[in-house]
Design brief:
This protein is of the alpha+beta class. The protein folds into two domains: 169 residues, 2-Layer Sandwich (60s Ribosomal Protein L30, Chain: A), CATH 3.30.1330; 35 residues, no CATH class. Helices cover 37% and strands 17% of the residues. The strands form two sheets. The protein has a five-stranded mixed sheet with strand order 2-1-3-4-5.
């Protein structure tokens, strides 16, 4: 997508938010998340409400040290990174390819667990919103391009109404010491506990390229 189209799409979303009276805080979250994601995907908009809801329930604010788990690779991780600063690189974000549109937030803990909150799109609540339901269930005949405006408006009108939450206890991984080791295949260095029969996973189970 070209930068020009991206900004035009964002301008349309901002007009919709103004027309629907969206809170300035959420408008800022949405704007920054769309720019980061590069286009106004419905999942990004919903995830903004999810992050905001989780923060409120947890009694936390952006800028705190928080940890997040996203249960889908699609869209939801981006508002988490933008709003909370939780990333895979700073170990604040874990993305699990479960496929559920859900995320969990918790604070740091010196113990083996931390109490947190899990926010998810509730299938029972989605039934009240036909455009969201058609998109969410990938219903036959649903055309996102043709119904984009109606879907976007419905997401903003629904807000948290399609979400539910659970209070959860999250396992906190301990800080383990590790030693470097050379892969017997590629000769590159990796943590020794990640070797598979002497080879790194990049030469084994996680191989994704071949040399040319």
């Amino acid at each position: 997508m070209s930068p020009e189209k991206g900004e035009a799409d964002l301008a349309r979303i901002q007009e919709r938010m103004d027309r629907l009276g969206i809170d300035p805080r959420l408008k800022d979250y949405v704007t920054r998340s769309i720019r980061f994601h590069t286009h106004p995907a419905p999942g990004v908009l919903i995830a903004v409400f999810m992050v905001d809801y989780a923060l409120e329930i947890l009694g936390a604010t952006p800028g705190e040290r928080l940890y997040a788990v996203c249960e889908t690779r699609k869209c939801a991780p981006d508002p988490v990174q933008v709003i909370l600063g939780c990333t895979t690189g700073n170990k604040g974000l874990q993305v699990l390819p479960i496929g559920r549109f859900a995320l969990t937030l918790n604070r740091p803990s010196d113990g083996p667990t931390s109490d947190g909150v899990r926010v998810y799109v509730d299938p029972a609540k989605v039934k009240a919103f036909p455009a969201i339901r058609a998109w969410y269930t990938n219903a036959p005949g649903f055309d996102k391009k043709k119904q984009e405006g109606a879907l976007t408006d419905e997401i903003f009108r629904a807000g948290r109404e399609i979400l539910s939450f659970k209070r959860v206890r999250v396992k906190v991984p301990g800080k383990e010491k590790w030693e470097a080791a050379l892969c017997s295949c590629c000769g590159e260095m990796v943590p020794g506990d990640l070797l598979e029969d002497g080879a790194c996973s990049g030469c084994g189970s996680l191989a994704y390229y071949e040399e040319i």
